[in-house]
Amino acid sequence: MKRRIEKIEPILFIAPALIGIIVFTLYPFINVIIMAFKEDYNFLTTEFTKFGLKNFEIIFNDPYFIQAMKNSFMYVLIVVPVSTAISVIIANLLNQNIRFKAFLQTSYFLPMVTSITAVGMAWKFMFNYQNGIINYVLSFFGVDAINWLQNPNYNFLALVIYGIWSILPFTIIVLLSGLQNINPLYYTAAKVDGAKAFKIFQRITLPLLAPTIGLVMVINTISTFKVFNELFPLFQGPGIAYNLFTVVYYIYYHFRSLTPPKYGIAAAAAIILFFMILIFTSLQIYIQKKGSVYKDGKN
């Protein structure tokens, strides 16, 4: 009897978490997959005509979905590498023995715990055509005022700038943690050999920080593919000319903005988004493993 209890005891400990995963993660995931193949699905009555690929045919023939895929891909391809590069530089500077180090580290972390709506409203004012600080700074370089929020040609650029800034705090904190785990003896040995600061950064910091960089790039790729909240403070939706549809906003549009809601189409778009993220992150991890400097403990 005692042995049986010992065998069951670990299961009892993980049961609450396991039940939560099944109810709130596994079941919704499976339900979305099934819903995506239900044609003319009515969520309230649970009625549908048949199982088929009609929902996928609709979204792949919808110009808004094609635009959403393009915008999402471009957003990821720009925001992730640029924010990572900026974060590596800032984290490396914050890791040095500089004055007000603790204050600066806290300052970079504050946006992460600030309401995205409040921050978005601040950025909306900064992008203001007549009184915004961004146009004011650009004027010193002879650049005419840009109508960031009302001109469709600049809407995506404004979203990208805001997106880069919004993920900097998390990226900087994680990279800073990675930098602080690097053994300082490597730097001491390099300085004794007369290595310059840039060479130390290139030959020691970057290779040893590579696993952490890879981690934040994967996390940020998943996050940026799901860009959605950033649209509302700046544009109250998909841009002034409906040119900023993203895949998540496309799902939201069919789920909440249409009457009656098109749950089957929203579910089909969610499945496509899932595979986009899966393929992109898997490829990213594969490239990182192939390009790893350290393999099996050898340089």
Q: How would you portray this structure in words?
A:
This protein is mostly helical. Helices cover 71% and strands 0% of the residues. Helix 2 (54-60) crosses helix 12 and helix 7 (152-180) crosses helix 9. It is globular, with a radius of gyration of 24 Å. The N and C termini lie far apart (53 Å). Residues 293-299 have low confidence and may be disordered.
Structural class: mainly alpha
CATH class: Mainly Alpha
Radius of gyration of CA atoms, rounded to a whole number: 24 Å
Count of spatially separate domains: 1
Query: What is the chains' assembly state?
Result: single chain
Order of helices and strands: HHHHHHHHHHHH
Beta-strand proportion: under 5%
Unreliable runs, pLDDT <50, ≥5 residues? 293-299
Mean pLDDT: 86
Structure in a nutshell:
The chain has 299 residues and is mainly α. The protein contains twelve helices and no strands.
